[in-house]
Amino acid sequence: MRESLFSKNLPKGKGNMAKPFLSYEQQIDKLRHDKQLLIFDTEYAKRILSELSYYSLIGGYKDLFKNPVSGKYSYGVTFEEIVAFYYFDEELRSLFLKYILHVERHMKSMLSYYFSEKYGEQQSAYLDEQNYNLNEKNKQEIQRLVKSLQKSVSMPTQYTYIAHHIKTYKNVPLWVAMNALTFGQVSKMYQYATSDVRTKISKNFVGITEKQLHQFVTVAACCRNICAHGERLYSFKIKEAIPDTIIHQKMSIPQKHGQYICGKSDLFAVVIALKYLIADEEFKRFKKHFGKLIKNVLKKCPHISRENLLNVMGIPDNWEKITRYKTYREDGDSFSPSARL
Hints:
Elements: E1 2-4, E2 21-23, H1 24-34, H2 42-52, H3 54-61, H4 79-119, H5 123-126, H6 139-152, H7 160-169, H8 174-177, H9 183-192, H10 195-202, H11 210-228, H12 246-250, E3 255-256, E4 259-260, H13 267-277, H14 280-300, H15 306-313
Helix pairs in contact: 3-4, 4-9, 4-10, 4-11, 4-14, 6-9, 9-11, 11-13
């Protein structure tokens, strides 16, 4: 079998010239001699490259093992270490996805309940632009949302329960439609729902306003997509950000130019979001599993320091103390960006 190294692997400054085709043997030779990566078992390396691909494995997970100046692997780095790091990221995706799905399920349940409580069980209710916070600023976004909802509850459909309700009742209530909606659609529905509906939902979470809940859910939904599509998670970074929280303050996360340097739009931001969005006991289980994954990968990858790994993940050194703190101020008020201890 043969594998092509795609032009995406080109170093900066090489233009758009395509990489030459390399067989698995040539890929291994390149790693051994050009990059000075230790490969003890050639047959094992060939099998892994055929299962994962050079681009997914080496292109995605080499950075922490390389000397930033020479571009070569640090002395003594083995092929097995990179493979171990790849599977660490795979387990990381499974862990985060598991608990984000709990958030998704909760949001779907509450949104369908409070929206239907106000507007009724007819599908025409959630397909009516007027039942959202409609104004000139968000009119087009709401129109796109409604169009996507309409598509989700229309024939033909891959969902038998949707087809059943269409054929039998000529109506798909929101609580039925919810199972077919993506977390992104749910996030948009919450974003553009009327203030009274949003407020009722946000009251299910301690110390969160309706706007802050949307920020948490948006970041969680972005992380969910990364996990579901098997993309690299450990270096998760997005444009969206969670709000400044009492957790940032209590953990004494450093600031630069008035902004927290981590826990805003990185993987630790998702950790903080889960702290607010899932039950305390669930979060403790999540944190315990997360800590084990980090400890295990550091044992398997001796050429990665704990400091470097946490830094690229956006995780502060004292992250495990997060369960010591409540997610709200002691006076019971919700947090605000200007709150100070």
